[in-house]
Structures are given as C-alpha cells and as structure tokens.
Amino acid sequence: MAAQTVTLHDKSFGIYLPESEILSNIKALADRINQDYASLNPLFVAVLNGSFMFAADLLKEVTVPCEISFMKVASYENTSSTGQVTELVGLKEEIAGRHLVILEDIVDTGNTVVKLLDMLGVRNPASIEIATLLQKPECLQHKLDVKYTGREIPNDFVVGYGLDYNGLGRNLRDIYKVI
Ligand SMILES: O=P(O)(O)OC[C@H]1O[C@H](OP(=O)(O)OP(=O)(O)O)[C@H](O)[C@@H]1O
Ligand code: HPA
C-alpha cells in the first residue's frame, strides 16, 4: 500500500498516480511502439537520470527486436528549469540510419527534448520520436511533436518513479505531487 504523503527536504507531496496506473499507461505505450516498430530495430535512447524506471518497465513490454542506450543531461535545480540543458554523458553508438526513440520520464518546458533532438538530429538518424511517461502541456515552451505520451498532467511538480526533488524521491514506486 502506497504512503498517502511523503516529505522530501522542505516539501510535502500527496499520492497522485499509483504504480498500477503508471504500469497500465506504460503497457499502452509499448503496444503502440510494438506495432509501429515491428521490423525497424529501434534504438531507445533513455535520458538519465529521471527515465531509468520508465525505461526499465517500458522495455519489459517491448516485444520487437530493439536496443537501448543512455544519455545524461540535466537542467533542473530545485523545482524549476534553469533553461540551460547540459550534456553530461553522450551517446557513443553509431546512429546514422537508425530509428531512435528518446525515452523521458517527463516533458515539462520541452527544453531538454528540444536540445536532444538538435544534438541527435545532426547525426543523421533515419527517424527520431519521443516517448514520455508524463507531459505537462500547459508548460510547453516549444512547438514539439511528442508521438508517445503516457499521460498528460497539469502544472504540478511531481516526484517518484524516477522523478526527483533535489535528488530525493526517485526510488518511490508511485508518483506524488507537491501539496
Ligand atoms: O521539459 P523540461 O522542462 O526540460 O523538463 C524535463 C526534464 O527535466 C528532468 O530532468 P533534470 O534536468 O531534472 O535531470 P534528472 O533527469 O537528472 O532529474 C526530467 O527528467 C526531464 O529530463
Ligand atoms: O514535475 C517535475 N518533477 C521532477 N522533475 C521534473 N523535471 C521537469 N518537471 C519535473
């Protein structure tokens, strides 16, 4: 049974999305990906740190041949975007001609995925799509086509299931929102 509230640093968070709902959103995303990428051997590019749980649970539901690699970028301090997306670990794989699917835990302002699309797009992949567990449409600051969204949420700061508040909360199985 999930805790109804958690306290991380100076903030309290209330239960928002239980693990069962998260996993059913992920299964629906995987079903679509399995149909769309049947013979394309997609390369999933998981964006660390936040996407590690989403990537693991999504890949368990992906049944088509595929590969996965990881990039590490960061832009958030406290609960807001710095606007500067810093690449901390790049992608070593040859991606020319590959079908890429960027895996994100959340698309908020869109700064991170826009930067990633720029960084990866110049390396001539055959295609790039975005799969995100959560998206905050009210916060998007870019014209962005997110093909695979698990769930749209309002503009509330959320933690758990990989998402953190200043480093804490990533280990929670459920997602909580600030109260
Ligand atoms: O759409 P945006 O406004 O760019 O926000 C989304 C990004 O912010 C978070 O990462 P963060 O930079 O906090 O790094 P982390 O994954 O290590 O927590 C999250 O994991 C996304 O990558
Ligand atoms: O709501 C959020 N929570 C945690 N990390 C984030 N990065 C962007 N938005 C969020």
Automatic annotation (TrEMBL):
Highest taxon above the source species: Bacteria
Pfam families named among the record's database cross-references: Pribosyltran (PF00156)
GO molecular function: glycosyltransferase activity
Annotated family: Belongs to the purine/pyrimidine phosphoribosyltransferase family.
CDD domains on file: PRTases_typeI
Catalytic class of the enzyme: transferase
Protein known as: Hypoxanthine phosphoribosyltransferase
Catalytic activity: GMP + diphosphate = guanine + 5-phospho-alpha-D-ribose 1-diphosphate; IMP + diphosphate = hypoxanthine + 5-phospho-alpha-D-ribose 1-diphosphate
SUPFAM superfamilies assigned to the protein according to its UniProt record, in alphabetical order: PRTase-like (SSF53271)
Gene designation per UniProt: hpt
Record key words, sorted: Cytoplasm, Glycosyltransferase, Magnesium, Metal-binding, Nucleotide-binding, Purine salvage, Transferase
Location of the protein in the cell: Cytoplasm
Annotated metabolic or biological route of this protein: Purine metabolism; IMP biosynthesis via salvage pathway; IMP from hypoxanthine: step 1/1
Domain Phosphoribosyltransferase: 20-165
Cofactor(s) needed: Mg(2+)
Upper lineage: Bacteria, Pseudomonadati, Bacteroidota, Cytophagia, Cytophagales
EC number assigned by the record: 2.4.2.8
